[in-house]
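Hi,

I'm pasting everything inline rather than attaching a file, because the server keeps stripping attachments. The sequence lines come first, and each chain or strand is labelled.
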Amino acid sequence: MPEVLKAPLVVEFPFTRSLGPVQSAFLTGLREQVVLGVRAGDGRVLVPPVEYDPVTAEEIRDLVEVAATGTVTTWAWNHAPRRGQPLAGPFAWVLVRLDGAGTGLLHVLDAPGPDAVHTGMRVRIRWAEERTGAITDIACFEPYDGVPGQLTGSNGEFEGERVTGIVAPARLDYTYSPGRAQSAYIAALSTQRTVGERCPSCRKVYVPPRGACPTCGVPTAEQIEVGPRGTVTTFCIVNIKARNLDIEVPYVYAHIALDGADLALHGRIGGIPYDQVRMGLRVEPVWTEGARYPDHYRPTGEPDADYDAYKELL
Amino acid sequence: MTREESSGVRDVAVVAFAQTDVLRTTDELSEVEMLMPVLHSVLDRTGLKTADIGFTCSGSSDYLAGRAFSFTLALDGVGAWPPIAESHVEMDGAWALYEAWTKLLTGDADTALVYAYGKSSPGSVRDVLTRQLDPYYVAPLWPDSVALAALQARALIDAGDTDEPALAAIGARSRRVATLNSRAQLRGSVPQGEYVVRPLRTGDCPPVGDGAAAVILAAGERARELCSRPAWIRGIDHRIEAHALGVRDLTDSPSTRLAAQKAGVFERPVDTAELHAPFSSQEVVLRKALRLDDSVRVNLSGGPLAANPMMAAGLVRIGEAAARIHRGESDRALAHATSGPCLQQNLVAVLEGEPR
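And the predicted assembly:
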């Protein structure tokens, strides 16, 4: 059995999110070093604030300023920070009930070690130097022995533009493995061969193979080399140029049933004017130097295949 | 809800269960290749063929796979041609089972195939799970799943509900009983290890592993034909709590208690419980919420501290509880599944075997 392939796979996206009126006020406030909560139906002040009451689901809009000082309600010591977390060195995760708030805010506490942290300890916000209207405008919390912080008297209105959205970049790293069947398919392509797998039950040959027959729901294992020649079963003419694609339009994108396969692959048709491509056209792959799959398919010059020969593969 | 509340409807039972070995990595297998043996196993046990199944429902997550619509590829293992009635939840398979149960109650189907799978090995599951958090206030801080569980564990210790030695004992007991479960990933004596995020040590955390599970449900007489001792679902319910951790009392799980009440757990004692508590500290919370005393056998399979295949571990709890009833080792069992940080969402089912 050939070696199972592996490759790095990075999934990365800058999630752009719009804010509702309460979230907008809260994050605009952080930019201005003001912390706002919202009063819930049971009288509690929720910090961070939400737009709907967690108990009654009623819409809530009553903004209340709370202090930048507070009390740790629970904590956990993180000796090995991970990518994206607020501090690069060891820190404590904390839930902090800010003075005036009835709920806990999740953030991190900069402390020399776990012995310096305890539930009930007093802390205050350390503001980030550059603030944009995001939860990370709070750089972290720090131990604080002084009196409760003073309120600014904010009513939730600020000079300058309101923060109406955030961009939250997200990145996850994977090591992708396509499994046994697809690894064998990719390995064969590297020698310009195409292999499928035959279902032991219905005898159909699947290309590319995924290790299972989708009709019978049983594993496939018997490798079958198919092609290289095949028949166009259906096609379309592409008139819009895709970004980053170096192919002149119009061109033909087709389904191609390789000889011996019971499933059509797809590919581009070249070597023939686009308006002369037809169902039943016999084609063969054209490989470019060092490519890992055929660049396109071109006519073989054989007579067209009879419709009955490929109608089951449409 | 309990069967009595949905009066006039049919009885539904778990009639077959299968699971894979849970392994740290399964590079050589695609998801569908990992899944197929358990699908065939439950079908073989009942003598059913794919074409006989009335409804199929699955649970999995694109974020674990790192690919969009990843569940569609797994459908190859089911045999989805000719067309079948099928659905998917982007959750643990326990919630897929709930959907299948409601489908059978409607009378639209007499049998259902429920399956779930997850490969955590391609990515970092601690980081992947941050993506289920509040995207405005929490996810930008990247608090990983162990960190959030550690906040809950500290709250329990501060409240006097447990301490670090008691937590270690939960992990040790789970892995000791798992020696009788050949599918489990961690079995026998495992060092409690260093702190991952204090106060949780390696031994308080679930192993990261790949695995799959499948269950067949059947209604009424069909269940009796397919299984000599069906595990009747007497009640099943799921509840959710506020998303923000700071709003919740982390030492309690009112959603579990409410789901259990609605499922009828408290009407009569259970003899067995399979709890989906990925962290040792969460078993403390669940035992309290479910009022389980020492007369109840908890997680004889080893539970999630011995094997925790993401998206399948909750379905495995229902399957393990049902299998004990099938074998005559339990008469009334509780199964619990969870999802989200610090037991945010909880599903509770009560399974019963008929008197022997």
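Chain B has a mean pLDDT of 95.

If the labels don't parse on your end, tell me and I'll reformat.
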